[in-house]
Amino acid sequence: MRSRRPCVKHFSHSHPLRPVEVKEEEELICSGCELDLSGSAYRCRKSSSCCDDFYLHRSCFELPKVLQLPMDHVSGHQHPLLLLDTPPKEDDDDEYPKFVCNACGDYGTGFTYRCSSTSCQSFNLHVTCAFLPNTIKHVDHQHPLSLFSSSTSLEIKGISFTCDVCRKQVPQNCWIYYCSECDYGTDLACTTTTNNNTYSVLPAGGGGRIQ
């Protein structure tokens, strides 16, 4: 349904965007976070083949351009992160620029939070991973799970970390949700997909997440 609210500009797109309400059955993808889109969103007002698929979640539209992670963040990263609409092309052979997220280990081609320092510009986060809470309640476990780096578990246990949901080994330095009392943990994918996005942020948790 078309909104009568005025069009707005966003740094990631050359044309004005208009607010829209997207239905789940439309099966659209956000051009920012690359996830399924429904609810309040923005789309390009131009009717052209190059812009027909440009949509943004309202939450992706409102992302801060500069993000400072907390001092005690699991990543240990202290430099400001800059929001980029597309990752820099680092290899001339790559047809499409992409990045590897330091949190989940997956590739991304959309919005990324990238370190502003020239000394560590290989540090990238999906916008959803950048706002993961410090503590969650998972439906498959009785205790709260805390955000850790898998490298921390490796140092403590001396072994590779394996997700207790999918049984896959977690790449070193990627993030996990972990209960130290039960030695139970999940990778980020199983926390959000196997759990059907039903975890809740506890009062002691961190910075929230993209809705």
TrEMBL record:
Keyword annotations of the record: Repeat
Domain of life: Eukaryota
Matches recorded under Pfam families: C1_2
Domain DC1: 11-60, 76-130, 141-190
N-terminal signal peptide: none
SUPFAM superfamilies, per database record: Cysteine-rich domain
Protein name per its UniProtKB record: DC1 domain-containing protein
UniProt organism field: Linum tenue
